[in-house]
Every structure is written in structure tokens, then in C-alpha cells.
Known about the structure:
The chain has helices at residues 32-53, 118-124; strands at residues 2-11, 17-27, 57-65, 82-89, 94-100, 141-150. It is an alpha+beta fold. It folds into 2 domains: 2-65; 82-150, no CATH class. The chain has a 3-stranded antiparallel β-sheet, covered by helices on one side. β4 and β5 (94-100) form a beta hairpin. It is globular, with a radius of gyration of 20 Å. The mean pLDDT is 87.
Amino acid sequence: MTVFTLNITMEDAYGRTTRKMLKTEDISAADVGAEYLLAQGFATTLLTALGNLTEANILYYNLGREVTYSDTVDAGANVDEGLTCLARKTNNKIVVIKVPAPVNAVFNPDGTLDITDALVTAYMNHFIATAGFTISDGENITALVAGRLDK
Length: 151
């Protein structure tokens, strides 16, 4: 049985947004394409009911198939620690990219990020114009400027 995740973004009368995440496991069909169509039907019905119940404006939703990723936790991994990266966007503005529980090897002794580290560049290159991922407002980055360990 395939798990689908529905992420709904809504806005109130003051321009503030909130997100709601829902999951369903009640979808089963012969192939993933058919399952997606069933999930899309469930989402449409749910969104109609939610739209009738809430005063907020439903801006958009994302519907995706949940895929299990095979990974293991490192000893000492702590999501209360984070990496904050500053990167330049194509419009020359600075954007923040955060990573939870970063590996210690990417930091200099003073807690700043080694922006030339292979692990860092391998991740950040996914946000460069030809890589396919964009920052929240749909823009790409052109360069990593700096970063630091957050505690």
C-alpha cells in the first residue's frame, strides 16, 4: 500500500500563512499511476470540505508519494544543532539555507562553515541554476557566501 502526503498552504486575512500536512494509507491500486489518481481524488474532496470549514484561503497544495529513504543516524546526531548557510540568489539577494544536525567535519575550528568542503558543495550545487531545485521563491543560487554552526 502506498502512502501519500498532502501538504496544504493556507493564508489568513492578515497575510500570514500556515501549513497543514496529512497522510493517507488507504490507497491501493494496480500501479502507482492509478494510485496517484485515486489520491488526487481524495485530496480534491478533502480540500473542498476544508475550504467550506475554514475562513482561511487555501493557496495551494502538494500531493506526493512517500518514499522511504535508506539511511542511518550517526552517533551524536542532534537536530537541536544546525547549519545556517548564506547564499546569493540570481537576483543578487542573500538567502538562508538551513541544514539540521550537520556533520562536524564541514566546520572550521571557529564554528564557521568551510564553504569549499566537498560535502557542502555537493549539497549546495543542487540549488545552482541547472540543477533543478530552487529556493522557496523559485529562484536559484549563484554562490555560497558563508555559513556557521547554530547551537
